[in-house]
Amino acid sequence: MSKSPPVRACWLGSAGYRAVWDLQAELVDAVRDGRAPDTLLLLEHPHVFTMGKAASADHLLWDEAERGRREVEVIWSDRGGEATYHGPGQLVGYPILDLTHFGITIPQYLEKLEQSLIDYLGELGIASEPGDPGLTGVWSNGEKVAAIGIKLNRSVVSHGFALNLTTDLDYFDGIVPCGHAEKRPTSVAALNGTPIDTGSAARAYARHFERVFGTSLTWVPPESLISSQPAGAGRAPHI
């Protein structure tokens, strides 16, 4: 029997960063107010550089012309952390959880999130570990394979992780990744040559999220995510 409350899970496919950011804000309010259950969003984004609360303009290395040529947007986000890249071939996970429902602290939540990713990578035959003190995310052979950046709104967390599957790593040349120019990213494909579909990876990863967080997942379609809101309280953004 699960020790934690059930969580609904949703695969959004490829979805724009701004739309999903708006959706997260809606869900945070709904989860905090008891109008929606804890939720795990799984998706991938089109090309985008996101700049966290600790990022600065000098973390952008490509000028506007090069970013235009590469069709990569820049968005200043309210998540923690510095600059990162999202794009095709990358599994993004945004757990919208009230930590009081799970009886865990922020450090414990981050440890569990890292462990769920480490366990999934282990399923793929990849050894990985959390970063050294001061380095967030999940690493393999000294290279970052998954970035983590979150936001806490009272007791509800949002934002989350980005796991490089078949990601075009050249896009990381356009930023100082997570503020560490000397720390290079890697991907599942680079580590073991596995060409893995992002949607399939979402389902496989979700099993590890269930186990590590001691919960059970119920999959729902995107249009049902904020249906528990009162009439007139807003709609899910177009994704």
Structural features, described:
This protein is α/β, with parallel strands linked by helices and 239 residues long. It has helices spanning 17-32, 64-70, 99-102, 106-123, 188-192, 198-213; strands at 7-14, 39-44, 48-51, 73-76, 83-86, 90-98, 129-130, 138-140, 143-153, 156-164, 217-219. It has one domain (10-224): Bira Bifunctional Protein, Domain 2 (BirA Bifunctional Protein, domain 2), CATH 3.30.930. Helix 4 (106-123) packs across helix 6 (198-213).
Write the layout of secondary structure elements.
Elements: E1 7-14, H1 17-32, E2 39-44, E3 48-51, H2 64-70, E4 73-76, E5 83-86, E6 90-98, H3 99-102, H4 106-123, E7 129-130, E8 138-140, E9 143-153, E10 156-164, H5 188-192, H6 198-213, E11 217-219
Parallel strand pairs: 1-2, 1-11, 3-4
Antiparallel strand pairs: 2-6, 3-5, 6-10, 7-8, 8-9, 9-10
Task: Flag low-confidence runs.
Answer: 228-239
Helical proportion, percent range: 25-40%
**CATH H-tier superfamily:** Bira Bifunctional Protein, Domain 2
Neighbour order of strands in the largest sheet: 7-8-9-10-6-2-1-11
* Main sheet specs: 8 strands, mixed
Q: Please tell me the CATH architecture by its name.
A: 2-Layer Sandwich
What's the tally of helices? 6
Cα shape? globular
Distance N to C terminus: 34 Å
Strand content: 25-35%
By secondary-structure content and strand pairing, the structural class works out as alpha/beta
Tally the structural domains: 1
What's the CATH class label? Alpha Beta
Q: Key features?
A:
single chain, BirA Bifunctional Protein, domain 2, 239 residues, 3-stranded mixed sheet, disordered C terminus
